[in-house]
Amino acid sequence: MAYRGLIHKYGRRMAISQSATPITLFEGDTPLIDAPRISAWVGGGAKLWLKCEGMNPTGSFKDRGMTAAVTEAVHHGASALICASTGNTAASAAAYAARAGITCCVLIPEGKIAMGKLAGAAAYGAQILAIDGSFDAALELVRLAAERAPIALVNSVNPARLQGQKTAAWEIVEQLGRVPDLVCLPVGNAGNISAYWLGFCENSDRERPKMLGAQAEGAAPIVRGEIVREPETRATAIRIGNPARWLQAEDAVRESAGLILSVTDEEIFEAYHAVAELEGVFCEPSSAAGIAGLRKAMSNGDVDARERDVVCVLTGHGLKDPDSVFDGTPKVVRIGANLDELLRALASEAGVPA
Ligand code: AN7
Prior knowledge:
The protein is α/β, with parallel strands linked by helices.
């Protein structure tokens, strides 16, 4: 039968109300593609696979958790949703609220949201509110607001979110035909790494991957072991200084014998450009933190993944954040509108002989 979304496929294995009518945009079922060139770029002899979560309906993995959280909220009578967001959660919540015919309010750190995410939230008709403060401050505020006002909180502190997001682990096992040896992903609020670990643990008692989480150096509270009051990174999705699922992420890393490490913005952006140019897979900068972290861990000997299956989760689509592609202005070569100039440019710019 045709694919009809995560709850239809996995709902019985999700701890959500079984009688609820799914609110779905047919999220999930995203590609897991082999990546020989980026494997070589990362080095160390591992075989890399890319889990392309940007292929979800609103362009990020958040849709997996949102179908579950919004289904649950609507089942319990909610007529409005709220979330704090670095962008992707906002776009996803706005879309699922629209799908359910209810109101959505999003609270964002002003000026720190990629344009494609803001565009999504606006297009789906959310009420967008901004504060002069960090994501962490926004999350604190929406938690308090949800205690006072009749509005359902859909950040990943909501347990239904993890129930939806854990399905990505099961898809990977199905697509690969086995459990991978290592799974690498970016860590912000730490909901996703917690959800993957939950999924792998529910999948098997014996075979589980190591989890590798990557934080941006300027927003690496778990790596540093302390809250970061003013997190800073160009990877704005993971510009978070006090992750809500901090302890759970530490458990996932410890229980899996994995690791959490930080990568510089420079390393993140190198990986971001490399995966697009070498594999044709365009993710947003934050999403490339997992690849950057893997490369670092391989080169300094923290992981030995030779001839192993490694999955890098690319959490959001590159089109979410078009500004990040360019360092200033796009590299465009202007030519006259005639064949001579085109052929000359092909030879000089692209190495294509006339
Ligand atoms: C592309 O949208 O926190 O560790 O408010 O958008 O589960 O928080 C986004 C996070 C990774 C980190 N990659 O995931 C939000 C938000 C992308 C993201 C993360 C986010 P978590």
